Amino acid sequence: MEIMEKALPPIPVKRYFTIGEVGELCGVKPHVLRYWEQEFTQLRPMKRRGNRRYYQHHEVLMIRRIRDLLYDQGFTISGARNKLQELVQGERDRRKAGMVPLEGMEAVEIDQEEFDAAVHEDEPASESATRTVDPSQLLHLRRELFEIRELLTLGR
């Protein structure tokens, strides 16, 4: 018996997804998503009125990764949980080491002084000296860039 894997649809560009939308985007039923929330601590959708779940883009990507580990690679729930934790920890370690992983290339070390100089190269000295950056904006931008990278790798 031949199993034809149905390609998952592209993830639309929007901020929040309902559990039904995520189920369709990831090829799993809503009750499975609710179960996975209990098993994978990294999966924490926002809950609103009536306990309605709203997933963000990075959570949809994580669910697709969990689905791949369980359904395509044959991991058990426990094995998938451990593998996901390894992936998350590896990513944290690379970030702490100042390395940015690039698909198909070695990680690149970021020299903070060189980066700052390049960013402020075109600004008058007085502007760059007084400008402050909100760390939450940087975190948001960084998260978006990782999501874009993930989208690009999924589209291959």
Word description of this protein:
With 156 residues, the chain is mainly alpha-helical. The chain is 56% helix and 12% strand. It contains seven helices and five strands, in the order E-H-H-E-E-H-H-E-E-H-H-H. The strands form two sheets. A three-stranded antiparallel sheet has the order 1-3-2. Strands 4-5 form a two-stranded antiparallel ribbon. Helix 3 crosses helix 4.
Helix content: 55-70%
Order of strands across the widest beta sheet?
A: 1-3-2
Unreliable stretches covering 5 or more consecutive residues: 103-109
Strand content: 5-15%
The Cα radius of gyration reads: 19 Å
Q: Structural class of the helix and strand makeup?
A: mainly alpha
CATH architecture of the largest domain: Orthogonal Bundle
CATH class of the largest domain: Mainly Alpha
Number of helices: 7
Strand count: 5
Question: Main beta sheet: strand number and arrangement?
Answer: 3 strands, antiparallel
CATH fold-level topology of the largest domain: Multidrug-efflux Transporter Regulator, Chain: A, Domain 2
Q: How many structural domains in the coordinates?
A: 2
* Overall pLDDT: 79
End-to-end CA span: 27 Å
- Helix/strand order: EHHEEHHEEHHH
Shape: globular
Task: Give a brief description.
The chain has helices spanning 19-26, 30-39, 57-72, 77-96, 112-119, 125-130, 135-154; strands at 16-18, 46-47, 53-56, 99-102, 105-109.
Any descriptors?
12% strand; single chain; mainly alpha; Multidrug-efflux Transporter Regulator, Chain: A, Domain 2; 156 residues
